[in-house]
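Q: I'm writing a short explainer about M20 family peptidase for a general audience and would like to include a description of its predicted shape. Could you first generate the structure from this sequence?
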Amino acid sequence: MPDSGCADGQALERLSRLVSIESPTGHAPGLQACYDLVADWSDGFLGTAHREVRDGVPHLYREERDRSSASGRPVLLLGHMDTVWPLGTLAAWPFAVDGERVTGPGVFDMKSGLVLALQALRAAGRTGHVRLLVTGDEEVGSTTSRALVEEAARDCAAVLVLEPGLDGALKTARKGGAMYRVEVTGRAAHAGLEPERGVNALLELAHQVLAITELGDDDRGTSVSPTVARAGSTRNTIPESAYIEVDVRAWDRDELERVEKDLRSLRPRTPGAGVELTGGVNRLPLERRMSAGLLDTARRVARAEGLPPVREARVGGASDGNFTAALGVPTLDGLGPTGGGAHARDEWVDAASLEGRTALIAALVRALAPPES
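A: Of course. Here's the predicted structure. Afterward I'll give you a sentence or two in plain language.
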């Protein structure tokens, strides 16, 4: 395994082992193999390990060791093991280190953050107040793990999310997101013999797409994006059905609610057509007020440790930190290393950022420990 003069060699070796196990969302064998490594690497630092399988998707949870701490308020380290990369990706794109550039499927989003968390626990000294949750379906909306995330976070003093940073900045605000499907029904007919007998669902869908795209608000940072669409069955048949998927992002809850109300008011424009909306809000926004106190703590400990100044960023993408912040639990996101290319073939991590990020997480874990009696 190549080492880096600017990074912990053990961190790179562990990252290589995790990335070299393919773990697409919901793939139980790959996820469980990764969890085996995480469980082994966290032995001695954390309490009891549990494997939670929900609707066939496995997740790993480790409790805090000292459940009788003075404050009774643990800290949750939160991340996900699933990646967007399908089985077989490694054959053409294996883990590699080229100078300070580390590449491979899932290396940035977000296996490196998990490795750093385990390295930080080793360095922190005090970890009896720490919980760890690693989920297996975050990339598709945490459909089976959301309840587990909320259960683990509800009584916590803080949540530290191990998602990658943005150009080195911690993520102090994230947009909330909603997912919808607009179904259009029409009536089939032969497109050549008697098209007038049909009700064209595709034509109606076109009307709906134009109406949907008007619901965004650039001034407020609200995006309403039609993404996936399908209509019809054969070239010579008037389509009797069609649908479109819609992605909504907004900085505040009011905007998400406003867009949903407008979507539910959609009405068909084509005589005889029907329109039905399904879906709803998936994640409420992570508002900056929920991260401000932890950001101050991160800046303070960074100065004390001689680390680079901590910067912050707002991002449009959502994470499981949106769920924990919505519970009222202080949440700081983006504690993973510097890099880029999430969900892209040029995904990479800067090896030079591993050591500093590990030190920052360790310092936060120590700072958030309850007073010693």
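A: For your explainer, you could say: Residues 107-124 form the longest helix (18 residues).
Q: Perfect, that's easy to follow.
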